Description:
Strand content of chain A: under 5%
Bound molecules: adenosine-5'-diphosphate, magnesium ion
Oligomer: heterodimer
CATH architecture of one domain in chain A: Orthogonal Bundle
Largest interface: A-B, 19 and 26 residues
Number of strands of chain A: 0
Strand content of chain B: 25-35%
Largest sheet of chain A: none
Helix content of chain A: over 70%
Radius of gyration of chain B: 18 Å
Helix content of chain B: 25-40%
Distance between the termini of chain B: 34 Å
Shape of chain B: globular
Amino acid sequence: MGLKRFRGRRLIAALLYTGMGFPPVVIGLFVYLLLSRNGVLGSLNWSFLPKLFTPAAMVVAQTVIAFPLVAGFTMAAVMGVDPQLRQQLLSLGATPRQAAVTVLMEARLGVIVAIAAGFGGIISEVGAVMLVGGNIEGRTRVLTTAIVLETRKGNFELALALGGVLLLLTFLANLVMLRLQGKVFDE
Amino acid sequence: MSEARLSDPIYRLKNLTKVYGERRVLNIATLEVYRGEILALVGPSGSGKSTLLRLLNFLEPPSEGVIEFEGVEYGVNQSPKLEKRRQVVAVFQRPMLLNRSVWDNAAYGLRLRGEHDTRSQVQRALAQVGLEGLAQQRAHTLSGGEAQRVALARAIAIHPQVLLLDEPTANLDPYNVGLIEGIVQRLNREQGTTLVLVTHNIFQARRLAQRVAFLLDGQIIEMGEVGQFFDAPQDARTRAFIRGEMIY
Ligand SMILES: Nc1ncnc2c1ncn2[C@@H]1O[C@H](COP(=O)(O)OP(=O)(O)O)[C@@H](O)[C@H]1O
Ligand SMILES: [Mg+2]
């Protein structure tokens, strides 16, 4: 996307950017409606489609939420790389694939930001996973939905502890990503 | 360099055109590049010099005509195999280095080719451009002249048959211009690398080239041995260009 100019590139970019700003809970609603037994896809009863209130359904929703974030930020990062670079890599004997990999490497700061944004979007998600997963204990309950539940029940201490775990997880994940950015970031 | 050696064509262009949109930016009836020569392409800005280099580098196909390279003809829809394309490399006016060390930049072309034992070749390429001392420095911290020499090192590390130079010394200080001219001259003399040099500096063309071609509006107006080209140009437009009367 970032590398080539083609018909419909603008449209796809516009869709991606819209997707980036889309309320996750609405995406959850769409996935819910699609997968529910009376929904467009659910009524087809295809076996490879995940059933509502299963972890697989949550993965579907989360993927739909994260994809525009990751793709959009990655595209922006790659477009920020001078197009002359690709030309010079090809001249040095890179195959189109090798050139794409190198350009991604050059944009690694932005690519990691993209992954971090996707991760952040997913791990903090409440509404969509609640809708699609159903917050079933031991099956589709995740940290965020558990926090909501425990707070409602008045178990503030447990909710706080869970919140701490969530924070720690997010922090660790971002630490790993910072390490990946490594030297580039230090400059 | 013997005359016999300088008449064996490595490239042979026939009725080559390149069209962008509605505009025909290149229209070359015939052009030969001899193995082991330094050919300078001069001409005002926008005359198609860079486009011609891109075609010689097989980065873009021609719109019409054929490019014969090492005896094999490539037409509009035939691009050479990877190994053939990899015998040609270009150095551009604005070097785009990777955000890595000088060493890694110089090794890039060899790594692309899947070569593992790149040490001695990289070392030699860096020595050729006088940058052994900066091997571990990050490329983005180099001066303009140093960066261009790294670009030259990563190009010559792969031992190309043909080195295409697109205004490699524009915007550089006289010291680095001198260095780079010396490097490419040595490369041509000692390793027999064929050089096609695009420059709008006619003095540089005169210093380096054995033959010179004058490009105007995508066409070769005049081409000849360097002495004859500068001392007895045939075409009035060539004379105007050499005298610096052509606006560019
Ligand atoms: N990718 C392209 N698309 C459209 N026009 C181009 C492209 N590349 C070059 N041109 C046009 O072709 C002409 C020749 O350009 P170029 O080969 O860069 O000239 P030079 O290197 O001699 O200055 C210019 O008018 C330029 O605008
Ligand atoms: Mg040019």
